[in-house]
Write a structure and sequence with these properties.
two-stranded antiparallel sheet
Length: about 270
């Protein structure tokens, strides 16, 4: 039996593949290629897509064409999440999906499909840059054909607001419970993960800095965002994030331990 995570990832792949095939067949009148289902292996390492083709008389020809283009299709699928900076690639998206589902389990009234879609779309706007990615992610979600065909307008507005409100620098409380869940899931607070993502962003965007420069930037960022007076807000007081943020406050006072963690991760990222 499929796990919840397998099921959610299968549906995401089904949606993205359907859009790829829709774009590829848009200029081919009278031909429809739909993705009937996607099955993901228990370890999430492989996925098998099952297609439905109309007209059936062209099925063999189209399947041969699809197989011949498999590398291109895989690449396009990967670009859906890999267009982001290194700290926001598919591992981050999957983490936010997983954490969102976990948090939503404490609130049975939450629509699990909406929780999943919000988490899957929350960073799509990064394709246009970081500055307004929360707003762009909302626009992308609300315009998505799959979303519009499976959810009511009211649900789409709710999901759009949740996506727009997820950003860590947002000082206002999210407008609905779904926004609180994705915002909390996106704030996965774990020292090594946070420091690694900070280093990854620094290496990608400030290549002129040396080790000492990256260390200084990392410390400044950690205090500005996660320090006792930092701008990050934890919206679910009973969450693991609330507990881990207190631990991070303690770590920020231990300069020796902090420097050891930084140097280890910095070396790993430069191997």
């Amino acid at each position: 039996m499929e796990t919840t995570r397998q099921s959610k990832i299968s549906r995401l792949l089904q949606k993205e593949l359907s859009e790829i095939f829709r774009q590829q067949t848009a200029k081919t009148h009278g031909v429809i290629v739909s993705v009937s289902t996607v099955r993901v292996s228990p370890d999430l390492s492989t996925a098998r897509a099952y297609l439905s083709i109309f007209p059936s008389g062209k099925a063999q020809e189209l399947i041969a064409s699809i197989n011949a283009s498999s590398r291109t299709i895989r690449y396009e699928l990967a670009q859906k999440v890999r267009a982001f900076d290194k700290a926001h690639q598919e591992s981050h998206v999957l983490m936010v999906i997983e954490q969102s589902i976990k948090l939503a389990e404490h609130t049975p009234a939450m629509n699990s499909d909406m929780v999943y879609i919000i988490a899957a779309f929350h960073d799509h706007g990064l394709i246009n840059g970081r500055e307004n990615h929360h707003k762009d992610s909302c626009t992308i979600l609300e315009a998505d054909e799959f979303v519009k065909s499976h959810f009511t307008r009211k649900q789409i507005v709710t999901m759009g607001r949740a996506v727009e409100d997820h950003r860590a620098s947002n000082q206002k409380k999210p407008r609905n419970g779904y926004g609180m869940i994705v915002a909390e899931a996106d704030r996965f607070i774990e020292a090594d993960t946070i420091i690694r993502r900070t280093i990854q962003y620094g290496l990608a965007n400030y290549p002129q800095l040396n080790r000492a420069g990256h260390y200084q930037r990392t410390i400044e960022h950690l205090n500005e965002k996660y320090g006792p007076k930092g701008y990050l807000k934890v919206w679910v007081p009973w969450s693991d994030n609330a507990k881990n943020l207190k631990k991070l406050h303690v770590l920020l006072t231990d300069k020796k331990r902090l420097e050891e963690i930084f140097n280890r991760i910095f070396d790993e990222e430069n191997e």
